[in-house]
Amino acid sequence: xxxxxIGGQKLAGTVTINRSKNxxxxxxxxxxxxxxxxxxxxxxxxxxxxxxxxxxxSIGVKVIWSEQNIEIIPPAKLVWQKLNQEAxxxxxxxxxxxxPLIHHFxxxxxxxxxxxxxxxxxxxxxxxxxxKLGAKIVSQNGYYEVNAAKLRPNEIxxxxxxxxxxxxxxVAAALIPGKTMIKFASANYMVQDLCHYxxxxxxxxxxxxxxxxxxxxxxxxxxxxxxxxxxxxxxAMLFLSLAATTGSSLIIKRCPIDxxxxxxxxxxxxxxxxxxxxxYKSDNGFANLVDIETKSSKLKALxxxxxxxxxxxxxxxxxPFFVPIATQARGTTLIHDWVYENRAIYYxxxxxxxxNIILADPHRVIIEGPTxxxxxxxxxPPALRPAAIILIGxxxxxxxxxxxxxxxxxxxxxxLVERLTKLGAKIEIIK
Length: 431
Hints:
The protein is an alpha+beta fold. It has helices at 21-30, 47-58, 85-88, 98-101, 124-132, 163-174, 189-200, 233-246, 261-269, 322-327, 343-347, 384-396, 407-410, 416-422, and strands at 2-7, 12-16, 38-41, 62-66, 69-73, 107-111, 136-139, 143-147, 155-157, 178-183, 204-206, 212-217, 225-228, 249-256, 273-281, 288-295, 299-300, 329-336, 356-361, 364-369, 377-379, 399-404, 426-430. It has a 4-stranded mixed sheet with strand order 21-22-1-23. A 4-stranded mixed sheet has the order 2-14-16-15, with helices on one face. The chain has a 4-stranded mixed sheet with strand order 4-5-3-13, with helices on one face. The protein starts with a strand and ends with a strand.
């Protein structure tokens, strides 16, 4: 699939933020520890979710779509040997099966994860965390060999404060009776959603939203539960970036403000004009939402570098969206993507649109602005957020652009072309 874009248009109108991709995939995998039916509400219909569902169905799970809701009904016995290798190779989320599957099998194999190609995204933190709980994991050629014969509660210090490793540790600890303490945990949005889901299943968790989680595991989980996903802060940041880069006046509804506060502060200091018009709760009762109205703004570069940190810092997945913004800001912006080895290299693709970017090293780019962007043809990089910022750049660039092989974008955003069109963007799907 390819996009044809006639850029340089001022956009206007209202867009509503969808539910979280990363929470959806985590909860789909976590549902395997529940012997009964889980219904996830308002699940985004995106490629990443489809791949995880294909994997779950291949090992015996019954998955039923109903509008935006998914019913997950586990079988009496999973069959890991029939796992869909092709679907697993297209998503990094397959790593989230380690935590639940150690409660189904004493010995099993799991393929190495696929998904975004962002350098050496080590899985050692997962292996070290689950080893503390008694699992033995050996990486073989193309798969992990797992032995989980003797599980036990324990105190875990995570090797890094990663989202998926925190999720794996949480799910693993939930079905190990006793107290497990997880230190240096991620407090990110998808982790908080997972914690609230586990609480519905009867697992007591202390420290939600902090870097230390205490899990009181139970012997068995057999609950019929409904869980409404929180809204996606990364999708909200896409539309904030689009508004800032194109100088557009948008109303962005249902933004999860707790995970956008620092990003908005940085944008405010860059001269971005916006107003919060409404504050309220998500349908799940715990996520805090706002509606944001943006205004056309004259932007200036920040003197300080822009870099990510674990929550409540700038979200690692929100960092790329500062790149197109910086191309339209007066002055020099330094963006330091210290987490991933290769992602800053993808930012350099924006030079094909006329952006003035210096690649200082695999982690840092220096951007001079403002620069008029020009239309061109680009093949999507094999990573979701870098692909999305190229799309933003094309929407800002005057003339006709072609963005080819947009599977990376479809992994994370639902009906994006339709939603952009409603805002006045001239974009269509072509072969």
